Amino acid sequence: MTFDIRSVKSKIFLSYGGILILVVIFFNATFYYFAQSYFYKNTIHALKSISLDVFADDIQGKNLTKGVALAIHKYEFSIRNVYIQALYKDKIVLKSKNLKDYELPRYRPKRDSDIVHVKANNISKYELIMYSTMIANNKNYTVQIATTIQEEKQHLARIINMFIVGDPIFIVIMLLVIYKMLQDILKPMNTMTKTAREISITDLDRRIKYVDNGDEFAQLAKTFNKMLFRLQSSFNQVKRFSQDASHQLKTPLAAIRVQTDVALKTNRDISDYKSVLRSINSEIIYLHNMVDNLLLLTQMDDEIVQKSFKKVELDTVLINAVEEFVLIADKKKINLNIEDIERTIIKAESTLVSVLCSNLIDNAIKYTPKDKMVSIELKENKITIEDEGIGIEKKDIDAIFDRFYRVNSGRFEGAGGYGLGLSMVKIIANLHNAAINIQSKIGVGTKIEVIFPTI
Ligand SMILES: Nc1ncnc2c1ncn2[C@@H]1O[C@H](COP(=O)(O)OP(=O)(O)OP(=O)(O)O)[C@@H](O)[C@H]1O
Ligand SMILES: [Mg+2]
Fold this sequence. Notes:
By secondary structure, this protein is α+β, with helices and mostly antiparallel strands. 54% of the residues lie in helices and 17% in strands.
């Protein structure tokens, strides 16, 4: 059981403990006060009822002697020690036998009757409570009735003892219960702290376990997990970019280095230098495009991009993309067949949709032999790009959307690439909630459809 004074648990525990002690003290004091006044009132009530007995037969004080004598007879040896004494003016005229040779302190009430506490050591070592009352019709007579409040004091002492023994036990038990409750309530917090402490950059996929009961801790855990998710995806993006970049940049950079090394070794003709520079330049363009593509792939944060969606004329975007490839297709003697292009408005990020179209057209032209045809169509929110190319085997169809996946890299002459195009197509389609269908047959061709949602 660790107890850190700065912890929330300790603070709640101490405050609760303090309040508990105050409540117990208050309860004890109230109880003691009421018990004491109950006993006191009871005693006074008893004394008064004895006095009523004394005066029961007393009409105009005539039978006082008889009344006192009867009362003395009735009460002097009762369980409670009752001492009775009658005064005429200040003289004792009657007294109960249990007073023996002693007497009650003579006391004439200031009003008709009075209650006083008196000490009469020779009668009782305990304090006496004495009720003195004047006879209504003859105020020279006073009747004094006294009793010890020993029993009541004992009861009260017992109550105090009970408090002295019971309170600490009760408080300790309550504090233990509170401590256990606090431990249970704050357990999720400790688990969270522990997990958060354990999570390092290498295991950002860990999540905080929690019971989803809607309480503050569950909310906190959820928020924390969401934050971890965001951290993880940002970290993965950075990681992915650095891995991909270092992997993909290695070869072209090595090629550039070899070429410059060779070119610098001996003096050469200007034409040689030009040819090396041209080669380096094309490598640089290549590298430039690839870095752009890699960045685009890693920077795609769905929520941010989706917020920037605007109404886009899909037909215009598609036609612009096709135009980029007209020369290339011509050069390759591929027949670009533009079929129906319907006016289509979608909600999208136009640059990304353009990247999607370019990549699909690029593939269709790249993987189609010369003199064959590539058809492009846009109808009912659906872009269809069909080629008469080499086709893709069924087993590869799912994998071609993975990053860096290329079917037998060198299977088609002149079709260089990184295996990044379709992974971008997939990410962009998902971002736009667009569906991709692909049908392909080896040696016959490939048909890819991208269906955008209507707005
Ligand atoms: N129209 C197609 N016909 C035949 N094979 C295709 C076609 N489109 C894609 N593929 C196959 O799928 C693989 C993955 O395509 P993807 O566009 O992702 O990469 P890439 O074209 O090889 O390189 P990059 O697009 O990065 O320059 C390709 O290597 C190719 O084998
Ligand atoms: Mg491609």
